[in-house]
Design a protein that fits this description.
The chain is of the alpha/beta class. It is 41% helix and 20% strand. The protein is built from eleven helices and twelve strands. The strands form two sheets. A six-stranded mixed sheet has the order 2-1-3-5-6-4. A six-stranded parallel sheet has the order 9-8-7-10-11-12, sandwiched between helices. A hairpin with a 2-residue loop joins strand 5 (87-91) and strand 6. The two termini are 36 Å apart. The chain binds NADPH dihydro-nicotinamide-adenine-dinucleotide phosphate.
Length: 285
Amino acid sequence: MKQYGVIGHPVAHSLSPLMHNTAFAALGLDCKYEAYDVRFEALRNAILEFKDRGFAGLNVTLPHKERIIGFLDVVAAEAKAIGAVNTIVDHDSRLVGYNTDAEGFSRSVESQRSHLAGTTILLIGAGGAARAVAYVLLADFSPSQLIIANRSQQRAEDLAARCEALGTDTRLEVAGLAGWEIRRAVEISSLIVNSTSLGMAPEVDRLPLMEGVTFRYDQTVMDLVYTPMETAFLRKAASAGARTISGLEMFLYQGARSFELWTGQPMPIEKVRPVIENELRKQSS
Ligand code: NDP
C-alpha cells in the first residue's frame, strides 16, 4: 500500500484525507492518506521519518509551507518563485517540492480570463496563500494593475517586492484594509480576491472589508476561505449581483493537481466534490 498524508499544525480538521481517500477508492488504488500533526520545531525530524517510512507523497500546510523548502532535494521553478511548497513527491528517494495552490487558483478563475486581462485586480491579504495567487495573476492573467491590501502594511510591501522581482509589467500598489484607499481599490477592480482567513469558521461573520464597501454586478469576487462554502464575503458580493467563486474550487483543484503528481492519474473530481460538499454542509449545520 502506498502512503500519503498532510503535515501541518493544527491539521486535525483538514478535509484533505477525505478528498484523497475518496479519490483513491473511486479509482481502486491501494493507497492511504492521513493527517499528521507536526509542530514547527519538529519539521526536520518528521520529514526524515516520512522518507524512512517510504511515504510516496505529502501535502504541506500551515505553518510549514515556506520552511519545508530547506528540507527538500529539488523544488519546482514555480514553487521556488512563489516561495512556498504544498506538495512533496518522493521520486526515487529524492524529495521534490511543488506548489499546487497556484494551479488550484488558476483553474478556479479560468472562466474569467477574458474579463481580467488589462484590468485592475484587488488581492486582500498577503500571507502564504496570497503569494501563490499573486504569482498566478501576474504570470497568467496579465492585469494592468494589482493592488495588494493587507492589515500589516509591511507584509503587503514584502509581497509587492516579491512580485516586482518577477519582472512584471503589471503596476503594483499596496493598501491598508481601512479608509479611502480600499474603497477606491474595490471600486476600480474587476476581480477581488480574499486571501485572508477572515470569515473562516467559527468566526463566520467577519468580513475582510470594512462596513459600507459595496460590490457591483460586473465584478467577480473570490474567497479562498471554504469553511463555510459560502462565506459572509461571498454572500455580500452575490447580493450585489457580482459573480462569486468559492474557495472550495481552489481546494478541489489544488488537491487534484497533487493527486495527479502522485498517481499520474486525474482525480475524479465529480466523485470527490459531492463528498466534500456534504461534509462542509454537515460541519456548518
Ligand atoms: P497566513 O497565515 O499566511 O495569512 C493570513 C492572512 O490573513 C494575512 O494576510 C493576515 O494579515 C490576514 N489576517 C489574519 N487575521 C486577520 C485579522 N484579524 N484582520 C485582518 N487580517 C487578518 O494564511 P494563508 O495565507 O496560508 O491562508 C489564508 C486563508 O486562505 C486561510 O483561511 C486558508 O484556509 C485559505 N486557503 C485556502 C486555500 C484553498 O485551496 N481554498 C489554499 C490555501 C489557503 P496580516 O499579514 O496582517 O497578519
